[in-house]
Amino acid sequence: MKPFKKRRARKANAPLPTKFSLNDVASLGNIMGDRHYVHKGIAVPRVTNILSTCMHNDSLMYWANYLGFKHQGYKEVLNQAADYGTKVHEALERYIKGEPFDASTPLNPIQAFENWWKQVTTNNRVKVLGQEFSLTCPWYGGTYDMLLEINGKPWLVDFKTSNHIRVSYCLQLAAYRNMLRYNGIVSDVAGFIVLRLFKDRPEFEEFIIDMIRPDQMAFMDQCSRTFNAMAYQFWNMVDIQSQFDKYHKRR
Asked: pLDDT tens digit string along 19-49?
């Protein structure tokens, strides 16, 4: 074992560095691998990848163990759920545009969305500003489901076919809000809607965050800051892993 070089001792009780800036990750380079977005020629991670990497989910572990007892592979089931969600999203995009969609699309979520859409458009002035639109910034990228103008104000809508509404959806929407503002598409959004479409019946659950309420605006501001902290963590963890792999191979 080689002796370590002598280094200047850290001053006793010196404060630990706690501040960070997302701009710092620019020096880490193009390190995202295959699944990424591109912002001005630089690969940036997906919003969903940051969330899945940085948020520990005990329920996913228990669910995977449960499937194991049933002799089912959790990756196979996850892929089936992802395919289901993709089909529903594609069908909803076509529905809004008045285009026909694949006959194999599950009907319950589509009928649930139709019920919600009629309710929203009957009681409000609604205009579609964007659908399945990809956004990027220097630190991450993602695709929002729908941006609506409701009574003259922009609202972000996210479609889900999961069994529950989770806090990660708020962080995901906060990331899209960050990118909408960064790119100057809107100065801010008036609110957020997570629309959970049931798989087994044509019903929906609506989770609304209205930014006119100070407490809910403060919550989403916190979500925006928290997601940026997660992005900073993600970039640095990928870089640390890369450096470790390089140093470990030298031994």
From this structure: 677 888 777 766 555 568 999 888 899 999 8
In a domain, 73, yes or no: yes
Distance CA 188, CA 180 (A): 8
Whether 207 maps to a domain, the answer reads yes
Q: Hey, is 76 helix, strand or coil?
A: helix
What are the Cα distances from residue 41, in Å, to 51, 180, 231? 23, 19, 19
Number of structural domains (the chain) is 1
Q: Summarize pLDDT for 168-183 with one digit per residue, the tens.
A: 999 999 999 999 999 9
Judge whether 181 lies within some domain.
yes
The angle formed by the CA atoms of residues 183, 39 and 31, to the nearest 5 degrees, is 140
Structural domain boundaries, residue 73: 58-240
Q: Are β-strands 191-197 and 153-160 bridged in parallel, bridged antiparallel, or unpaired?
A: parallel
Question: Is residue 80 included in any domain, yes or no?
Answer: yes
Pair of tokens at residue 138: 């220097």
Phi, psi at 51, each rounded to 5°: -65, -45
Structure tokens at 249: 């191979």
Report the distance separating Cα 116 and Cα 179, nearest Å: 27
Query: CA of 88: how far to CAs of 94, 127, 135, 159, 209, in Å?
Result: 10, 21, 21, 9, 23
Q: Rounded CA gap, 209 and 220, in Å?
A: 8
Look up the CATH number of the domain holding residue 126: 3.40.1350.10
DSSP type of residue 57:
-
